[in-house]
Amino acid sequence: GSAVVDENNTSGLGKDGKVPLVALFTYFRMDVETKGGTTTQKQGLAYSLDNGVTWTKYPGNPIIDNTDLKDFRDPKVFWHEGTQRWIMALVAGDHVKFYRSQDLIQWTKVSEFGRDHGAHGGVWECPDLFPLKVEGNQGEKWVLIISIGTGGPNGGSGTQYFVGDFDGSTFTTDQEEIKWLDWGADNYAGVTYNHTPDGERVFIGWMSNWGYALNTPTQTWRSAMTLPRRLSLGKKDGEYFLRNYPVNAVNDLAETVDGKELQIPAQGTVSVADEALNQSKISFTTKNRDFKLTFSNALGEQLNLIFDSTSKLVILDRTASGKTGFEKTFGGYLHYMVMPETLGSELEGTIFMDSSSLELFINGGRYVMTEQVFPSQPYTQLTIDNMSHDGMEVREFSIVRMEGIWKR
Q1: Is the overall model pTM greater than 0.90, yes or no?
Q2: Does the pLDDT value for residue 407 go beyond 70?
Q3: Could you tell me the CA-to-CA distances from 86 to 39, 75, 76, 174, 273 in Å, in that order?
C-alpha cells in the first residue's frame, strides 16, 4: 500500500489540530483462501496522529470491497491538483483500476487501463502514477509503473512502464511497445515518493525475483533494496524513455578519485586488482562496443558483462559467479539488455558493486541492469577484454570504495 499526509484533514480523522497520516493498504484474508474462496484481498485504511508512532485502523474497513477478483491489491494514492481529489491506482489481476475520492474514505471507480497494453506474463502488481517534465523543455507527461510477477525481460519478475497522459480520471497512451525500467532480473515492486524535499522523483525497488526469492543462499538477511534512484523522462526520435540513476546523495558514500585513461590494444586485456571490488563504484567512458568486463576471485568464480556491437546487446553472465545451484533459473542462462546506441558514440558506464549485487547504469540511467550475485569469496580482480580489432580507449576509469551503510 501507500501512505499520505492529509495536511488539510480531508478525511476528518485529524483531531485537536493534529495532521493525520493516512495509510491505504491491502488486507489478505487467509481464512477465505483456506476455505477455497477467491476474494481474499480488500483495501483498508489506518491513520496516525503522532507522526506514525501508533496507528488506528478505520472502524469502517474495508473501504473498498472485492466481490469477484482473486488479485486486487497494492493501492498507491496521491493528491491530484487539477481535480482537487485523491487518486488511487489499484491493480486487479491483469490491469489497473483508478479510483477517486474527496476524503480518502469514500472511493469511486473512474476508469481502467491495461487489459490490452503492456506485458502480461504474470499478475500486475505495485502500480505507481506520476507526472514528469520531459528533458529539454519538451512539456510534461505522466508515467505509469507496473510490476509483473513473471514474464520479465530476463525471466521471472520485472518492472514495465507506460508514458502517456492523465486527466484526473483516465490514463491514456500511444505507446505500443513494452518498455522496461530495468532489464536485470532483480528490480521489482518499486514505487516512488511524492513531494520529496528537492522535487525529485525517487524510486526504490526490491532487489530480488519471485523465481528464487525464497531460496537465496543468505543467513542473517534475505533480499535487499536497490539504491534509491532519481527518475527522469527523455525523448528521442519521437519516443519517450525513462531514465533511472542513483540519487546524488549516493556519491557522498564514495571516495573522491580522479579517473585515469586506459589504452587497450586490439584483442588485448587489462587487469586491475582491488580488494574492495565488492563494495565499490566503477566508472568508465568509451566509444568501443565490443568488450568484456570480468569480475573474479581466487576460486575462479567470475561474473561477466559483455558488450556486443553486432547484436546491440549487453549480456550478463552469472552462470559461474559463485553460488548458483540453489535454484536452476538463477544461473541457468545468460541475461541480456537491448542497447541500440550508435556505434562510435560515447558509452558512459557506472557500476555499483555490493557484497551480493551489481547495479549497472549506462548513459546516465538510459539502460539499466540490476542483478544479484553470491560469490563464495569477494571478487578481487576486474579484467577488461577488448574484443574488437581496433585499439580501445577507456577514459575516466576509476574504482572507488563505497562507505558501508549496513550496521553489523
Answers
A1: yes
A2: no
A3: 25, 12, 10, 25, 54
